[in-house]
Amino acid sequence: MGRLLHVAWLLAAAAAAHVSAAPLQVEQVAPGVYVHIGQHKDFEDGYDGDIANIGFVIGTDAVAVIDTGGSYAVGMALKEALRKITGLPIRYVINTHGHPDHVFGNAAFIDAGPAGAGAPPRFIGHAMLPQAMASRGDAYLRNVKKQLGGAAEKSTLIPPTETVQHRLSLDLGNRQLELTAWPKAHTNNDLTLFDVSSGTLWTGDLLFIERTPSIDGDVKGWFSAMEALKKIKAVTTIPGHGPLTRDKNRALDRQGAYLATLLHDVRTSIRQGTDMTATMATAAASERARWQLFDVVNRRNVNVIYPALEWE
Ligand SMILES: [Zn+2]
Question: For labelling alongside 304, which of 111, 113, 125, 259 has CA 20 to 30 A away?
Answer without folding.
Answer: 125
